[in-house]
Amino acid sequence: MVKALAFKGDKKSKKRKHRHEEETGDKSGTLTATGQTSGITEEDDSWVTAEVPSDIAGPVIFALSTTPPTCIACDANGKVFLSEVENIIEGDRATAEPHDVRQVWVANRVAGTEYISFKGHHGRYLGCDQSSILSATREAISAEESLLCIASTDTIGTFNIQTQREKFFTIGEDNKSAEIRGDAEAPSFSTTLRIRMQARYKPRLKANKESKAREKISRKELEDVVGRRLEDDEVKRLKKARREGDYHEAILDVRVRGKHDKYS
Known about the structure:
The chain is α+β, with helices and mostly antiparallel strands. It contains five helices and 15 strands. Strands 1, 2, 7, 8, 11, 12 and 15 form a seven-stranded antiparallel beta sheet that branches. It has a two-stranded antiparallel sheet with strand order 3-4. Strands 5-6 form a two-stranded antiparallel sheet. Strand 11 and strand 12 (159-162) form a beta hairpin. Helix 2 runs antiparallel to helix 4.
């Protein structure tokens, strides 16, 4: 489920306590009564650059090669237009973040294909018709709303967006056009863009944070599982095993080692 977007400068609202927390006084947030973790990845609203097509998921912004920097946006009627990016550092597209919900699209894989759909803030999908005009007016995904994100071979972290008619999204060659179209025959500077996304949806970052979350276990918890006091090197070994996925085997080894030491 995609969470409500937060923009720079917005004040974060305080979360209300669940009844279970109020009754038990549990404020740790590490484990609820149902066994769910508070989820360090779900709270990360920072924006990062998609580097490969498999990264692209969740809320995204298309940062275009224009001066001043712009992105693809749409109004409530589905009209697509170029919107100036305000949240950016020294014009670097790799730092672009949205300041307006109209600039944000939610990316999802089209089932069974390499294509991606992009849903606008108004619940309709970005598409390109036979006249190469971009719009976001359809509530269902057809071939026109199924887009291919091809990684650029020139610059890491940039993409070319291809339609099913094998044409590319493009802006005016002089960067002064107020219109973006889908009629470029081949990739070029004017078809190249960056896709910025929320960090919690990026597979590698998500995996790293989940790995760190798995590593967070106290010495006392480890000693309770093993059933005895542990040496420093044993604690380090078990934490590493928990991070790398062979935790249960390591626990068994440490238990066996403890029995041998006891009777030696």
